[in-house]
Design goal:
Length: 372
Protein backbone atom coordinates (compact mmCIF):
# COMPACT_ATOMS: atom_id res chain seq x y z
CA UNK A 1 0.00 0.00 0.00
CA UNK A 2 1.08 3.56 -0.69
CA UNK A 3 2.06 5.51 2.42
CA UNK A 4 -0.74 7.75 3.66
CA UNK A 5 1.58 9.72 5.96
CA UNK A 6 5.13 10.82 5.04
CA UNK A 7 8.07 9.68 7.13
CA UNK A 8 9.62 13.14 6.91
CA UNK A 9 9.03 16.33 4.94
CA UNK A 10 10.84 19.66 4.75
CA UNK A 11 8.88 22.75 5.85
CA UNK A 12 9.14 25.15 2.90
CA UNK A 13 7.18 28.41 2.59
CA UNK A 14 6.80 31.07 -0.11
CA UNK A 15 9.53 33.23 1.41
CA UNK A 16 11.96 30.30 1.11
CA UNK A 17 10.98 29.86 -2.52
CA UNK A 18 11.33 33.52 -3.43
CA UNK A 19 14.68 33.91 -1.66
CA UNK A 20 16.09 31.05 -3.74
CA UNK A 21 14.46 32.49 -6.87
CA UNK A 22 16.12 35.86 -6.29
CA UNK A 23 19.56 34.25 -6.22
CA UNK A 24 18.86 32.31 -9.39
CA UNK A 25 17.80 35.52 -11.14
CA UNK A 26 20.85 37.42 -9.86
CA UNK A 27 23.24 35.15 -11.76
CA UNK A 28 25.59 34.92 -8.77
CA UNK A 29 25.22 31.21 -8.08
CA UNK A 30 28.43 30.36 -6.20
CA UNK A 31 30.97 31.99 -3.86
CA UNK A 32 28.83 34.98 -3.06
CA UNK A 33 27.11 37.10 -0.42
CA UNK A 34 24.44 34.55 0.58
CA UNK A 35 27.06 32.19 1.98
CA UNK A 36 28.53 35.06 4.00
CA UNK A 37 25.11 36.04 5.27
CA UNK A 38 24.28 32.45 6.20
CA UNK A 39 27.60 32.01 8.03
CA UNK A 40 27.10 35.19 10.06
CA UNK A 41 23.56 34.15 10.95
CA UNK A 42 24.58 30.63 12.04
CA UNK A 43 27.50 31.91 14.13
CA UNK A 44 25.15 34.39 15.80
CA UNK A 45 22.47 31.79 16.43
CA UNK A 46 24.87 29.25 17.94
CA UNK A 47 26.94 31.83 19.83
CA UNK A 48 30.37 31.06 18.34
CA UNK A 49 33.02 33.09 16.51
CA UNK A 50 33.08 31.22 13.21
CA UNK A 51 30.74 29.36 10.90
CA UNK A 52 31.99 27.82 7.65
CA UNK A 53 29.37 26.56 5.20
CA UNK A 54 30.03 23.36 3.25
CA UNK A 55 28.22 21.03 0.87
CA UNK A 56 27.08 18.46 3.47
CA UNK A 57 27.27 17.45 7.10
CA UNK A 58 29.72 14.72 6.12
CA UNK A 59 31.98 17.32 4.48
CA UNK A 60 31.77 19.42 7.66
CA UNK A 61 32.93 16.49 9.80
CA UNK A 62 35.66 15.53 7.35
CA UNK A 63 37.10 19.05 7.32
CA UNK A 64 37.11 19.18 11.12
CA UNK A 65 39.04 15.89 11.14
CA UNK A 66 41.53 17.29 8.63
CA UNK A 67 41.89 20.56 10.57
CA UNK A 68 42.68 18.66 13.76
CA UNK A 69 45.31 16.68 11.83
CA UNK A 70 43.83 13.31 12.77
CA UNK A 71 45.46 10.67 10.62
CA UNK A 72 46.56 7.09 10.01
CA UNK A 73 46.33 4.87 13.09
CA UNK A 74 45.17 7.63 15.43
CA UNK A 75 42.34 6.21 17.54
CA UNK A 76 39.05 8.04 17.84
CA UNK A 77 36.44 7.15 20.44
CA UNK A 78 33.04 7.13 18.76
CA UNK A 79 29.59 5.67 19.35
CA UNK A 80 28.38 2.98 16.96
CA UNK A 81 24.76 4.04 17.40
CA UNK A 82 24.97 6.83 14.84
CA UNK A 83 24.87 7.62 11.14
CA UNK A 84 27.83 6.29 9.13
CA UNK A 85 29.19 9.79 8.44
CA UNK A 86 30.36 10.18 12.07
CA UNK A 87 32.82 7.33 11.50
CA UNK A 88 33.49 7.76 7.76
CA UNK A 89 34.72 11.32 8.34
CA UNK A 90 37.92 9.98 9.93
CA UNK A 91 38.14 6.62 8.10
CA UNK A 92 38.87 8.77 5.02
CA UNK A 93 42.07 9.80 6.81
CA UNK A 94 43.01 6.31 7.97
CA UNK A 95 42.20 6.99 11.64
CA UNK A 96 40.65 4.07 13.54
CA UNK A 97 37.34 3.94 15.38
CA UNK A 98 37.20 2.63 18.94
CA UNK A 99 33.52 2.05 19.42
CA UNK A 100 31.98 3.05 22.75
CA UNK A 101 28.62 1.86 24.03
CA UNK A 102 25.70 4.24 24.69
CA UNK A 103 23.58 5.32 27.63
CA UNK A 104 20.42 3.25 27.69
CA UNK A 105 18.07 6.23 28.06
CA UNK A 106 19.29 8.97 25.73
CA UNK A 107 21.32 6.69 23.39
CA UNK A 108 24.24 9.15 23.45
CA UNK A 109 27.82 7.99 24.10
CA UNK A 110 28.28 6.44 27.57
CA UNK A 111 30.98 8.57 29.20
CA UNK A 112 31.67 5.81 31.74
CA UNK A 113 33.06 3.71 28.86
CA UNK A 114 35.56 6.33 27.67
CA UNK A 115 38.48 6.17 30.12
CA UNK A 116 39.13 2.45 29.91
CA UNK A 117 39.49 2.77 26.12
CA UNK A 118 42.04 5.58 26.20
CA UNK A 119 45.69 4.76 25.42
CA UNK A 120 48.60 6.65 23.89
CA UNK A 121 47.13 6.34 20.39
CA UNK A 122 43.84 7.94 21.40
CA UNK A 123 43.59 11.41 19.88
CA UNK A 124 39.94 12.46 19.89
CA UNK A 125 36.35 11.80 20.86
CA UNK A 126 33.64 12.04 18.20
CA UNK A 127 30.49 12.88 20.15
CA UNK A 128 27.03 12.55 18.59
CA UNK A 129 23.93 14.36 19.89
CA UNK A 130 21.67 11.49 18.91
CA UNK A 131 18.21 12.32 17.53
CA UNK A 132 18.67 15.91 18.80
CA UNK A 133 19.34 14.98 22.45
CA UNK A 134 22.59 16.50 23.76
CA UNK A 135 25.30 14.10 24.92
CA UNK A 136 26.52 14.30 28.56
CA UNK A 137 28.82 17.21 27.84
CA UNK A 138 30.16 18.03 31.33
CA UNK A 139 31.50 14.51 31.77
CA UNK A 140 32.85 14.25 28.24
CA UNK A 141 34.71 17.57 28.51
CA UNK A 142 36.15 16.62 31.89
CA UNK A 143 37.62 13.40 30.46
CA UNK A 144 38.83 15.11 27.26
CA UNK A 145 40.67 17.74 29.28
CA UNK A 146 42.20 15.17 31.62
CA UNK A 147 43.68 13.17 28.69
CA UNK A 148 44.18 16.14 26.34
CA UNK A 149 41.92 14.74 23.65
CA UNK A 150 40.34 16.71 20.85
CA UNK A 151 36.56 16.75 20.83
CA UNK A 152 34.42 16.85 17.71
CA UNK A 153 30.70 17.38 18.10
CA UNK A 154 28.64 15.66 15.43
CA UNK A 155 25.60 17.79 16.09
CA UNK A 156 24.14 17.11 12.65
CA UNK A 157 20.88 16.02 14.29
CA UNK A 158 20.73 18.68 16.96
CA UNK A 159 20.76 22.27 15.72
CA UNK A 160 19.15 24.50 18.34
CA UNK A 161 19.45 21.96 21.18
CA UNK A 162 20.80 23.13 24.54
CA UNK A 163 22.80 21.49 27.30
CA UNK A 164 22.42 23.29 30.64
CA UNK A 165 21.26 26.46 28.86
CA UNK A 166 24.12 26.54 26.37
CA UNK A 167 23.52 25.92 22.69
CA UNK A 168 25.13 22.89 21.08
CA UNK A 169 27.90 24.00 18.76
CA UNK A 170 29.68 25.66 21.69
CA UNK A 171 31.00 22.31 22.96
CA UNK A 172 34.06 20.58 21.59
CA UNK A 173 36.85 22.00 19.44
CA UNK A 174 34.38 22.27 16.58
CA UNK A 175 30.90 21.07 15.74
CA UNK A 176 29.06 20.12 12.57
CA UNK A 177 25.42 20.74 11.63
CA UNK A 178 23.70 19.27 8.58
CA UNK A 179 20.88 20.51 6.39
CA UNK A 180 19.68 17.51 4.40
CA UNK A 181 15.90 17.75 3.77
CA UNK A 182 14.95 15.45 6.67
CA UNK A 183 16.75 17.65 9.23
CA UNK A 184 15.13 20.34 11.37
CA UNK A 185 16.05 22.97 8.77
CA UNK A 186 17.29 22.39 5.24
CA UNK A 187 19.39 23.81 2.42
CA UNK A 188 18.75 20.77 0.17
CA UNK A 189 22.23 19.35 0.60
CA UNK A 190 24.45 21.30 2.95
CA UNK A 191 26.26 21.59 6.24
CA UNK A 192 28.27 23.95 8.39
CA UNK A 193 31.26 23.88 10.74
CA UNK A 194 31.06 26.04 13.85
CA UNK A 195 34.01 26.83 16.12
CA UNK A 196 35.64 29.46 18.31
CA UNK A 197 39.07 28.35 17.09
CA UNK A 198 40.55 30.69 14.46
CA UNK A 199 42.92 28.14 12.99
CA UNK A 200 40.26 25.43 12.60
CA UNK A 201 38.02 27.95 10.86
CA UNK A 202 40.83 29.10 8.53
CA UNK A 203 41.76 25.53 7.62
CA UNK A 204 38.15 24.58 6.91
CA UNK A 205 37.63 27.70 4.80
CA UNK A 206 40.69 26.90 2.76
CA UNK A 207 40.05 23.19 2.34
CA UNK A 208 36.43 23.54 1.27
CA UNK A 209 37.79 25.59 -1.62
CA UNK A 210 40.58 23.32 -2.98
CA UNK A 211 43.09 24.37 -0.33
CA UNK A 212 43.36 27.95 -1.51
CA UNK A 213 44.62 30.51 0.99
CA UNK A 214 42.20 33.35 1.71
CA UNK A 215 44.58 35.93 0.21
CA UNK A 216 45.86 33.75 -2.61
CA UNK A 217 45.04 34.24 -6.23
CA UNK A 218 42.77 31.74 -7.92
CA UNK A 219 45.29 29.02 -8.74
CA UNK A 220 47.50 29.06 -5.65
CA UNK A 221 46.87 26.10 -3.33
CA UNK A 222 48.34 25.81 0.18
CA UNK A 223 46.78 22.47 1.18
CA UNK A 224 45.28 19.37 -0.35
CA UNK A 225 41.70 20.58 -0.47
CA UNK A 226 38.29 19.64 -1.81
CA UNK A 227 35.38 21.18 -3.54
CA UNK A 228 33.06 21.17 -0.53
CA UNK A 229 31.54 24.59 -1.27
CA UNK A 230 27.87 25.32 -0.67
CA UNK A 231 26.16 27.01 -3.63
CA UNK A 232 24.36 30.34 -3.29
CA UNK A 233 20.84 28.94 -3.81
CA UNK A 234 21.34 26.55 -0.91
CA UNK A 235 22.78 29.31 1.28
CA UNK A 236 19.76 31.52 0.49
CA UNK A 237 17.40 28.74 1.54
CA UNK A 238 19.46 28.34 4.71
CA UNK A 239 19.18 32.05 5.57
CA UNK A 240 15.44 31.93 5.07
CA UNK A 241 14.98 28.72 7.06
CA UNK A 242 17.20 29.86 9.91
CA UNK A 243 15.00 32.93 10.39
CA UNK A 244 12.14 30.56 11.18
CA UNK A 245 14.15 27.94 13.04
CA UNK A 246 12.73 28.67 16.49
CA UNK A 247 9.30 28.30 15.02
CA UNK A 248 10.19 25.10 13.14
CA UNK A 249 11.58 23.59 16.33
CA UNK A 250 8.45 24.51 18.30
CA UNK A 251 6.27 22.76 15.73
CA UNK A 252 8.38 19.62 15.97
CA UNK A 253 8.31 19.72 19.74
CA UNK A 254 4.51 19.92 19.71
CA UNK A 255 4.27 16.81 17.51
CA UNK A 256 6.74 14.95 19.75
CA UNK A 257 4.81 15.88 22.88
CA UNK A 258 1.59 14.65 21.35
CA UNK A 259 3.14 11.30 20.42
CA UNK A 260 4.59 10.91 23.90
CA UNK A 261 1.28 11.77 25.52
CA UNK A 262 -0.49 9.08 23.46
CA UNK A 263 2.18 6.44 23.98
CA UNK A 264 2.88 6.68 27.72
CA UNK A 265 -0.12 4.50 28.60
CA UNK A 266 1.38 1.42 26.88
CA UNK A 267 3.83 -0.84 28.70
CA UNK A 268 5.23 -2.33 25.46
CA UNK A 269 6.83 0.87 24.28
CA UNK A 270 9.05 3.58 25.74
CA UNK A 271 8.80 7.11 24.33
CA UNK A 272 12.07 9.09 24.00
CA UNK A 273 13.65 10.06 27.33
CA UNK A 274 14.69 13.73 27.70
CA UNK A 275 16.99 14.69 30.56
CA UNK A 276 15.63 17.54 32.70
CA UNK A 277 18.59 19.87 32.13
CA UNK A 278 18.64 19.72 28.33
CA UNK A 279 16.56 21.30 25.65
CA UNK A 280 15.94 18.82 22.90
CA UNK A 281 15.89 19.77 19.23
CA UNK A 282 13.58 17.11 17.82
CA UNK A 283 15.12 15.51 14.72
CA UNK A 284 13.21 12.22 14.58
CA UNK A 285 10.74 10.60 16.93
CA UNK A 286 12.18 7.23 17.95
CA UNK A 287 10.47 4.90 20.40
CA UNK A 288 11.90 1.75 21.96
CA UNK A 289 9.86 -1.45 21.94
CA UNK A 290 9.87 -3.87 24.87
CA UNK A 291 12.20 -6.87 24.67
CA UNK A 292 10.73 -9.82 22.82
CA UNK A 293 8.67 -7.86 20.30
CA UNK A 294 9.63 -8.42 16.68
CA UNK A 295 10.35 -4.90 15.50
CA UNK A 296 10.82 -5.76 11.84
CA UNK A 297 7.49 -7.64 11.67
CA UNK A 298 5.84 -4.64 13.31
CA UNK A 299 7.33 -2.33 10.67
CA UNK A 300 6.04 -4.59 7.87
CA UNK A 301 2.59 -4.69 9.43
CA UNK A 302 2.46 -0.90 9.77
CA UNK A 303 3.57 -0.47 6.18
CA UNK A 304 0.69 -2.68 5.05
CA UNK A 305 -1.58 -0.06 6.59
CA UNK A 306 0.23 2.72 4.73
CA UNK A 307 2.20 3.93 7.75
CA UNK A 308 5.96 4.08 7.28
CA UNK A 309 8.28 3.27 10.18
CA UNK A 310 12.01 2.55 10.28
CA UNK A 311 14.56 0.78 12.41
CA UNK A 312 16.95 3.51 13.54
CA UNK A 313 20.04 3.25 13.75
CA UNK A 314 21.70 0.17 12.33
CA UNK A 315 24.94 0.14 14.39
CA UNK A 316 28.09 1.04 12.50
CA UNK A 317 30.30 -1.60 14.15
CA UNK A 318 28.22 -4.37 12.55
CA UNK A 319 28.18 -2.92 9.02
CA UNK A 320 29.81 -4.93 6.26
CA UNK A 321 32.48 -2.37 5.39
CA UNK A 322 33.56 -2.04 9.02
CA UNK A 323 33.78 -5.82 9.42
CA UNK A 324 36.05 -5.92 6.36
CA UNK A 325 38.33 -3.30 7.89
CA UNK A 326 38.35 -4.28 11.56
CA UNK A 327 36.93 -7.80 11.83
CA UNK A 328 33.81 -9.04 13.55
CA UNK A 329 32.90 -6.70 16.42
CA UNK A 330 29.46 -8.20 17.06
CA UNK A 331 28.82 -8.66 20.78
CA UNK A 332 31.19 -5.90 21.92
CA UNK A 333 28.52 -3.23 22.57
CA UNK A 334 25.63 -4.81 24.50
CA UNK A 335 23.49 -1.70 25.01
CA UNK A 336 23.88 -0.53 21.42
CA UNK A 337 23.05 -3.97 20.06
CA UNK A 338 20.02 -4.45 22.27
CA UNK A 339 18.65 -0.96 21.66
CA UNK A 340 19.23 -1.08 17.90
CA UNK A 341 16.99 -4.14 17.58
CA UNK A 342 14.12 -2.40 19.36
CA UNK A 343 14.13 1.22 18.17
CA UNK A 344 11.50 2.43 15.77
CA UNK A 345 11.26 5.85 14.12
CA UNK A 346 7.68 6.96 13.56
CA UNK A 347 6.56 9.43 10.85
CA UNK A 348 7.71 12.83 12.04
CA UNK A 349 7.67 16.29 10.50
CA UNK A 350 6.36 19.77 11.25
CA UNK A 351 3.03 19.44 9.56
CA UNK A 352 1.76 16.11 10.83
CA UNK A 353 -1.81 16.71 11.95
CA UNK A 354 -3.15 15.62 15.33
CA UNK A 355 -5.34 13.03 13.65
CA UNK A 356 -2.29 11.62 11.85
CA UNK A 357 -0.62 11.04 15.20
CA UNK A 358 -3.69 9.04 16.25
CA UNK A 359 -3.56 7.01 13.02
CA UNK A 360 0.13 6.20 13.53
CA UNK A 361 -0.34 5.25 17.18
CA UNK A 362 -3.30 3.02 16.27
CA UNK A 363 -1.35 1.32 13.51
CA UNK A 364 1.54 0.70 15.90
CA UNK A 365 -0.81 -0.67 18.53
CA UNK A 366 -2.51 -3.05 16.08
CA UNK A 367 0.82 -4.26 14.75
CA UNK A 368 2.18 -4.89 18.25
CA UNK A 369 -1.00 -6.75 19.30
CA UNK A 370 -0.76 -8.96 16.24
CA UNK A 371 2.79 -10.07 17.09
CA UNK A 372 2.68 -9.94 20.88
C1 LIG B 1 22.63 13.79 8.87
C2 LIG B 1 23.81 13.39 9.64
C3 LIG B 1 25.11 13.68 9.21
C4 LIG B 1 25.43 14.41 7.92
O1 LIG B 1 24.77 13.95 6.82
P1 LIG B 1 24.89 14.58 5.35
O2 LIG B 1 23.91 13.76 4.59
O3 LIG B 1 26.29 14.42 4.90
O4 LIG B 1 24.51 16.02 5.44
C5 LIG B 1 26.17 13.32 10.03
N1 LIG B 1 25.96 12.70 11.20
C6 LIG B 1 24.73 12.39 11.65
C7 LIG B 1 24.59 11.73 12.99
C8 LIG B 1 23.62 12.71 10.87
O5 LIG B 1 22.39 12.37 11.30
Amino acid sequence: MRNIISMSLPDINEEDVSSVGEVVRSGRLALGPKNEEFEAAIAGFVGVKHAVTVSSGTAALHLIVRSLDLKTNDEILVPSFTFAASVNSFLYEGARPVFIDIEDETYTIDHSGLERNINNKTKAIMVVDVFGHPAEWDEIKRIAEKYELKVIDDSCEAIGAEYKDRKLGQFGDAAAFAFYPNKQMTTGEGGVIVTDDDSIADMCRSMRNQGRGEMNSWLIHDYLGYNYRLDEMSAALGVSQLKRLDDLLKKREAVAKLYTQKLTEFDWVRPPVVKPYVHMSWFVYVVTLAEGLNRDEIIREMEKEGIPARGYFSPIHTQKYIRKLFGNLEGTLPVTESVAKRTLALPFHNNIRNEDVDIVVDALKHAVMKYA
